[in-house]
Write a structure and sequence with these properties.
Number of helices: 9
Strand content: 15-25%
Shape: globular
Radius of gyration: 20 Å
Number of strands: 8
Distance between the termini: 19 Å
Order of helices and strands: EEEHEHEHEHHHHHEEH
């Protein structure tokens, strides 16, 4: 049943000794994308945490898939706050109980991406391609069934697709900061503005720019705009309380964007074009938790279009001093209690 959270307590347990994630790569040969283009070798980089456990038949029995957001990477999900609020003893994804698999999405991190060399000749991919590749990765490393699929933002949208494309592949699903409908409205306007800023940059050259002189003009528009779209009014005001400090914040944001590659960013934002789980929501048959944030400009609460079937639980976390808008996804102490409550209420505790 859909529920609304009032004020959720923030509980953090310090993880005194954080284990180092193991990292590895799987290569999928002749991967064919939904648009018909193919890649001779698709490299998928991933991190793992925890110790895998097998059941009596020898199958891995405690795997959890974690999926990151747009323009991010697996590294986002192994920051200190995640260890302290999610992975510690007694926390929702306690590493003594679960084996976590955290892939870099296609186009991100150390997985295959346009900036590796193909530039704008890299195959165009969508969210469904991401999910098929993730499933193939898991098959390659011996994971046939997942206890939990949990994704944030872009990863949250891919979590909806996991529930439709592989409905019996997991015990439950958790989607953060996402909606169960095609991207539209303010979110789509933002994405189109990002695409146009990159494509209209004179140095973009249809995506075939030299490595030594990449386009940079787009950064001054895209990165501050993205901070507005994904941040909260409280946090932006805190960092820019005066005219002078607000201007300095813009300059700092622009400087922070210098590490982004234009094609990687463009492909990542445009990959959402095939996302629309709405027609097939009835296929999702596992318990599913959705966590959204009342001050999220990217996914406004009044336009979430969440399903109301009995297998769905919807939590809306109110704004406030502990909220960062859409980027509250990076503050797991805020939403870990909702995750813990959901997992503990399942018929057989996950």
């Amino acid at each position: 049943m859909p529920t609304t959270a009032a004020t959720l307590p923030v509980v953090t347990q310090t993880f005194h000794v954080r284990p180092k994630p193991n990292d590895a790569v799987v290569a999928i040969h002749d991967f064919v994308f939904g648009v018909g283009e193919s890649l001779a070798s698709l490299k998928l980089h991933y991190l793992t945490l925890g110790k895998l456990r097998r059941d009596a038949s020898g199958a891995i029995a405690n795997a959890v898939l974690l999926l990151h957001g747009t323009a991010g990477s697996a590294a986002d999900l192994v920051r200190v706050g995640f260890f302290d609020s999610l992975y510690g003893a007694g926390e929702p994804l306690d590493l003594s109980r679960y084996f976590l698999v955290i892939p870099d999405a296609i186009g991100a991190g150390d997985s295959s991406k346009p900036s590796d060399g193909l530039h704008a000749h890299f195959p165009h991919f969508g969210y469904k391609d991401q999910v098929r590749a993730q499933h193939e990765l898991l098959e390659r490393i011996g994971v046939k069934h997942l206890r939990v699929v949990l994704g944030t933002s872009m990863g949250g949208m891919q979590t909806w697709l996991w529930g439709e494309m592989f409905p019996n592949g997991m015990d439950c699903l958790v989607a953060l900061a996402s909606t169960s409908a095609a991207i539209s409205g303010r979110n789509m306007i933002w994405r189109e503005m990002v695409s146009q800023a990159i494509r209209d940059d004179p140095a973009w050259k249809n995506g075939d720019y030299p490595k030594g002189s990449p386009p940079r003009d787009w950064i001054n528009a895209v990165i501050p705009l993205s901070a507005i779209m994904t941040g909260s009014a409280e946090q932006l005001q805190r960092h820019g309380p005066t005219r002078k400090t607000a201007v300095a914040l813009v300059e700092n944001l622009e400087a922070s964007g210098q590490s982004y590659d234009a094609n990687d960013m463009l492909y990542s934002f445009e990959s959402s074009a095939d996302y629309d789980p709405a027609p097939n929501l009835h296929v999702i048959n596992k318990p599913m938790l959705t966590i959204n944030f009342a001050d999220d400009l990217t996914n406004p609460p009044q336009f979430l279009n969440l399903p109301t079937a009995s297998n769905y639980t919807a939590v809306m976390i109110p704004g406030g001093p502990n909220s960062y808008g859409h980027m509250t996804i990076a503050q797991p102490a805020v939403w870990a209690p909702a995750l813990q409550s959901f997992l503990q209420r399942l018929p057989q505790a996950v």
